[in-house]
Amino acid sequence: MTIKLRPATDRDVREFVAWRYEPPHDGYNITTDPDEAVEYFLGADIHCHTLIDGDVVVGYCTFGHDAQVPDGDYTADALDVSPSPPATSGPAECGRTPDSTRSLGSPPTER
């Protein structure tokens, strides 16, 4: 598996908006209208990128303020990255299984 990172596209966002996560990652379930989600994730200040293996979307991540943890200590310079956890529903539609994304890890709980 070779994971590459690219800026997210409209199509990418519409794909990962449909993914579903079980607790404790259910906070990653995107429940907004897909059009609103596209507008949000493609916003210049979100810096959303798609993780791909070949031509298969296997995850996404955001950089900057969207990736920051509530009540985190942000006094030092750093790059804030928030990767998506493996989806528990939707993988069949995007050609992946939960095991194929295990190496991406879980979202950070602290900085």
Question: How would you characterize the overall build of this protein?
Answer:
The chain is built from 2 helices and 4 strands; from the N terminus they run βααβββ. The chain has helices spanning 10-17, 34-41, and strands at 3-7, 49-53, 56-63, 81-83. The chain has a 4-stranded antiparallel beta sheet, with helices on one face. The longest helix is centred in the N-terminal third of the chain and has 8 residues, at 10-17. The radius of gyration is 14 Å and the shape is globular. The model is unreliable at 91-111 (pLDDT under 50).
Give a concise summary:
With 111 residues, this protein is of the alpha+beta class. 14% of the residues lie in helices and 19% in strands. α1 (10-17) packs across α2.
Provide the gyration radius in Å. Answer: 14 Å
Query: So how many helices?
Result: 2
Count of domain modules: 1
Shape: globular
Poorly predicted ranges: 91-111
Which structural class fits the helix and strand makeup? Answer: alpha+beta
Q: For the record, give the distance between the C-alpha atoms at the N and C termini, rounded to a whole number.
A: 27 Å
Give the tags:
111 residues, alpha+beta, globular, disordered C terminus
